[in-house]
Design brief:
Keywords: Glycosidase, Hydrolase. By secondary structure, this protein is mostly helical. The chain has helices at residues 47-63, 81-92, 96-107, 132-135, 153-163, 167-191, 205-208, 217-221, 247-262, 267-273, 281-300, 304-321, 353-356, 361-377, 404-416, 420-437, 457-470; strands at residues 79-80, 119-120, 278-279, 325-326, 331-332, 335-336, 341-342, 440-443, 450-454. Strands 3-6-7 form a three-stranded antiparallel β-sheet. The protein has a two-stranded antiparallel sheet with strand order 1-2. The chain binds (2R)-3-hydroxy-2-(alpha-D-mannopyranosyloxy)propanoic acid. (2R)-3-hydroxy-2-(alpha-D-mannopyranosyloxy)propanoic acid is lined by residues 71, 76, 80, 82-83, 118, 206, 209, 211, 235.
Length: 475
């Protein structure tokens, strides 16, 4: 894939016009007739980008459930934590008030102990499993899950605050959200790092956001499957099973939920009793970056003591990150806290220390070289797993496919370390995937084909907040 200057060379099939059907899971190329912006003076070369932006806007609008955005119809009918924080970046390009509201709705479900849950079940839905009655009980369904997800929200709040046009609104909302963000970040320090190592634990693959990552194969295999009640997966009614986690993984996902439920998700107990406990690169890199942004906000808001408290977390985490670096592999790796071993799998999360800004210049150079090698192996990057690994699966969820949100994070990191050409290359790949194959949950890196849920909110948000700015000859 050539660098971004080639963004104006748009694949012919992407010009095809197709109707926008929110429920049409099969439509790969979705360009909206009637929605095409025909403003005079706009260069024809940008028509595909305009179409993508219009489609992205329609996706967010269609997936809006009144203040919060579902990731995709049917497949994910509730509010997800890191999805919403990323989707708010997209909303900000359309309506700043709506972007802040997305975060407010998420934090309205914050627990007393500070946890911000991974799913908020605002309204009942029959299309997802496990829903509120599994997280709670049939008699007493819960309004949220009892686990969390990578804490993107502080990163979003800083962006909305810094880049927002309505400064008065930004100041008011940032002030309101700041104590809530702080409570969540403190929860990570205490509930998930009780021994003060500097790095936090992830207790369920769903918390990592990269549910069936090959990095979890070994630690998940060590989770015994309990005699859990029989269940029917609903995800397989929406998406081909070849694109989803396997049954043996789901049995363990559910086992963990039932074990956590048995202690009422008490955060002082879960860390010690969970048979799955890893140091996840994605969660820790996102948290590190989010702490930098929270510290920035603290200074803006005159909260100097809090800024010092965050400095302490950041300093400790900075040192601890080095224990996750495998110099021989030129990659960062997640760790199994229960065995103390680094997990062998090289996944795209291994590049996220760039997004965190925690890698040294030398480590960044190794990561850039590894990334280039990966990109040379596939048609479109970034694959979520080492494309040279024997068990690379280009279609199966977090075991190979490309995810636009991860591309955004890694691109942001590459730029910060001066790898502009590589950043442009990833941007160009992402743009081409979306233009040629529609706005999907993820993409096959070998063929480029769209996979998973269609008309997907966080991919649409990345189009609005990131690619719209990147896809110009200026890059
Ligand atoms: O498969 C699922 O049922 C959910 C469980 O949380 O995870 C996927 O879907 C969620 C909604 O998009 C994402 O937040 C996760 O990262 C993951 O890709």
């Amino acid at each position: 894939m050539a660098p971004v200057a080639c963004l104006t060379t748009v694949p012919a099939e992407a010009q095809a016009h197709q109707s926008f059907h929110a429920n049409d899971a099969a439509s790969a190329v979705v360009v909206i007739p009637g929605a095409i912006n025909t403003d005079k003076g706009v260069n024809d070369e940008y028509e595909p980008l305009k179409n993508l932006l219009e489609l992205s806007k329609q996706i967010l609008t269609e997936n809006d459930r009144g203040g919060y955005t579902i990731p995709a119809k049917g497949l994910y009918p509730y509010q997800w934590n890191w999805d919403s924080a990323l989707v708010a970046l997209g909303w900000a390009t359309l309506d700043e008030g709506r972007a802040w509201q997305e975060l407010e709705m998420l934090f309205s479900a914050q627990w007393e102990d500070g946890l911000v849950p991974h799913i908020v079940f605002h309204k009942p839905s029959p299309t997802y499993f496990p829903g509120p009655e599994i997280w709670g009980s049939v008699e007493q369904p819960m309004g949220t899950t009892g686990i969390t997800q990578p804490p993107v929200a502080a990163i979003t709040v800083r962006k909305l605050y810094e880049e927002g046009v309505n400064k008065e609104l930004a100041m008011q909302k940032a002030k309101e959200l700041f104590p809530k963000l702080l409570a969540w970040h403190r929860w990570f320090q205490t509930a998930r790092d009780p021994h003060g190592t500097g790095l936090v634990a992830t207790l369920h693959p769903w918390e990592s956001g990269m549910d069936n990552s090959p990095a979890w194969d070994e630690p998940l295999h060590n989770v015994p499957v309990d005699p859990i009640p029989p269940y029917v997966r609903k995800d397989l009614g929406h998406v081909d099973s070849a694109m989803r986690p396997k049954q043996e993984e789901y049995d363990r996902f559910l086992t963990l939920v039932y074990r956590f439920r048995a202690v009422n998700y008490d955060c002082t107990k879960l860390y010690f009793l969970s048979p799955f406990r890893v140091t996840d690169l994605c969660t820790n890199a996102v948290l590190y970056r989010a702490n930098l942004d929270l510290r920035w906000l603290a200074t803006e808001l005159g909260e100097n003591e809090i800024a010092e408290e965050i400095d302490g977390w950041v300093e400790k985490a900075h040192k601890a990150f080095d224990t996750l670096y495998d110099a021989k592999a030129g990659m960062y790796k997640s760790k199994d806290q229960l065995t103390g071993k680094l997990l062998a799998a090289k996944t795209s999360a291994g590049f996220l220390p760039l997004f965190a800004r925690v890698a040294s210049a030398e480590q960044a150079a190794s990561l850039a070289a590894t990334l280039e090698r990966w990109l040379d192996c596939v048609k479109s990057g970034i694959p979520s797993y080492d494309p040279e690994a024997a068990n690379f699966e280009p279609l199966r969820y977090w075991r190979g496919p490309v995810w636009a949100i991860i591309n955004w994070m890694i691109t942001d990191g590459l730029r910060a370390y001066g790898y502009e050409d590589l950043a442009c290359r990833v941007e160009a790949d992402t743009y081409e995937l979306l233009v040629s194959h529609g706005i999907s949950e993820y993409y096959n890196p070998v063929t480029g084909a769209a996979a998973g849920g269609k008309l997907f909110s966080w991919t649409a948000a990345m189009c609005l907040a990131w690619l719209s700015k990147a896809a110009t000859p200026a890059c």
